[in-house]
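thought: fold this chain, then report.
action: predict
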Amino acid sequence: MRWLGHPLANRLRHPDTGELLMWDADGTLRTSSGEIIEVEGNVPIFLPRRLSEVERHFAEHYQRDAELFDYFEERDRATAHDERRLREAILRRIPRSAQVVLDVGCGNGWLAKTLVPRGVAVCSLDANRRNPQRSLEQTPDQHHVAVVALSERIPFADATFDCVVASEVIEHLPEPERALEEMLRVVRAGGRVIVSTPYRERIRYVLCIHCNRPTPIHAHLNSFDEHRLGQYLPGTQFGYEIFGNKALTLLRTHVVLGILPHWLWRAVDALANRIIPKPAHIVAWWQPPSVLP
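observation:
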């Protein structure tokens, strides 16, 4: 049973009641009042019973999304290069001292695949049942656990993680401020919340043939820049970086730029954004005070 002995085993809490949960020796997860939590293949399922209409629709959408689309499939070379550079930027912002990390919206589990071999304990969280399970299969290690949960209702006690990462997630959320507040709640004093999202994306819509309603392409509901992101989580230290020139991607320069180390690629990318200011990504981070009041 992967959870037994894991540093997060005693930090789970019920998303409806806030009760801390306990593991029995046989792998049963229960509340102090005896309610049993569903566990599927070492993955606790934390989809609250009392969902708002927005939350219910979101949970249903991403369950269906994971059934139809393979987050683990191999990307084309241009996309793979863009993702690599984005991930490098995120990894640079994770504190070196971080030993327990939460990956919100884990997708294909790349963060666990990168950090777990370094001895970092990672929890992969996603709103659907498929991705956390496949992430565990991809990185089967005692330091790696996973949960199914909503980012607005993270099923962990306050101040549990050294760092929380949400890569390409908040643009999909109906209420991104709620998710960010939850991420901050579960970060320890002096820890860090890191998000990445498309930069100043123009949200485009198509007409859904099923419901006859305007539907955003890629299910992106929000567009962000440093000004909007800086309004969230007051009382924390805020930082950001903007990068990923779209013209370089369209020109398929990954064939050459893909061989460059990150620092040199960033220099070329920064020059390109001076000439053609079309950055694709923003990585932002919030850091609460080392000592909370």
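thought: worth noting. The chain has one domain: 21-287.
final: tokens above.
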